[in-house]
Design a protein that fits this description.
Helix content: 25-40%
Number of helices: 11
Order of helices and strands: EEHEEEHHHEHEHHEHEEHHH
Strand content: 5-15%
Distance between the termini: 92 Å
Low-confidence stretches: 293-305
Radius of gyration: 24 Å
Largest sheet: 8 strands, mixed
Length: 316
């Protein structure tokens, strides 16, 4: 029903009855009241049209912000294994992302109608861009001098799994990044684990950390094998819906990696709520993987010990 969210519509952006304020909230152009969806009980087609118009308006506005405010570049993908008849879609990247030698962050949203740059268009409509879009993640990554790539698994004719694999094979695998981090929401987590199953050695060599947010992946039902499960256990963390405060441990025997509270029971709001925890996790794991201090460095105590030994030998 919502497959046309990013397709051109007869209604221009300026004709839409709502607009985004400077702080990212959707308000009515005349009354300035917050957005409220009008469900038409006796008009199913009218309800569908309103859904489509809303999704299209939000999508185009987010694309505009990605390009004009955050200076991201839209990259069209080349046709995949399904032939020329199906468009593989596109992604957004920061300038020079594939040539950046530091950290490259990948964002993978849930399955559904969310396009590039969004975790949830419903959350955008009701709670603002800071809550439902990927813009806060992009802004934070760029501020930390990281390159960033926004996947687009619900656009084009490929499945999310096929899209993630195509983006990896055609773009990410050829990048100069020394460290790759991944944020995967909902079905995006399953799509990433599918990639890990397909290209285990390369993923384990290049990806430093994975943040799963209310993810649909399975450590046991996807063919990871013992090595893949051990790698995820060491390099990933999962945030699940919970009434506990953000980033509190949540026990689970089946998770296979450390499980934390997302700080919310709302799936669509989870990425925004636990963003700070995700970035702290990435920073901690990357510090832990830094090159250790060589053991042959002469310390003050060793130097003094050596000097004492030399004096004894000279006396003898």
């Amino acid at each position: 029903m919502m497959s046309e969210c990013s397709e051109p519509s007869n209604q221009s952006q300026s004709d839409y009855p709502y607009f985004f304020t400077e702080d990212g909230y959707l308000c009515h152009r005349d009354s300035l009241k917050p957005y409220k969806f009008s469900f038409k009980l006796n008009d199913v087609h009218g309800t569908v049209r309103e859904h489509l118009a809303l999704c299209h308006y939000i999508t185009q506005h987010v694309y505009m912000l990605l390009e004009k405010t955050l200076n991201l570049t839209r990259m069209n993908l080349q046709n995949g294994s399904k032939g020329d008849s199906l468009s593989p879609g596109f992604v957004y990247m920061s300038p020079g992302a594939l040539d950046h030698c530091g950290t490259l962050m990948l964002l993978i949203q849930d399955k559904g109608t969310m396009r590039c740059g969004m975790w949830s268009w419903r959350a955008v409509a009701h709670e603002g861009l800071e809550r439902g879009s990927q813009i806060p993640y992009v802004r934070r990554a760029l501020r930390q001098s990281r390159a960033i790539l926004l996947m687009n698994p619900n656009e084009g004719g490929l499945s999310p799994e096929e899209h993630v694999r195509l983006v990896w094979e055609s773009l990410v695998s050829k990048s100069a990044a020394e460290r790759i981090t991944v944020v995967a929401h909902g079905y995006g987590g399953l799509a990433f684990v599918h990639l890990l199953c397909c290209r285990p050695e390369e993923i384990q060599r290049r990806v430093w950390a994975v943040a799963f947010i209310d993810s649909s992946h399975s450590m046991w039902h996807q063919p990871l094998g013992t090595t893949g499960r051990e790698w995820l256990k060491a390099h990933s963390r999962t945030w699940v819906l919970s009434a506990k405060p953000t980033n509190r441990p949540v026990g689970s025997l089946k998770a296979g990696c450390r499980v934390m509270s997302a700080g919310t029971q709302c799936h669509e709001a989870a990425p925004a709520v636990c963003m700070e925890s995700v970035f702290r996790f990435f920073a901690k794991l990357m510090r832990a993987k830094a090159t250790p201090t060589p053991f042959d460095i002469v310390t003050r105590s060793r130097s003094l010990s050596g000097s004492t030994k030399d004096r004894k030998n000279n006396t003898a």
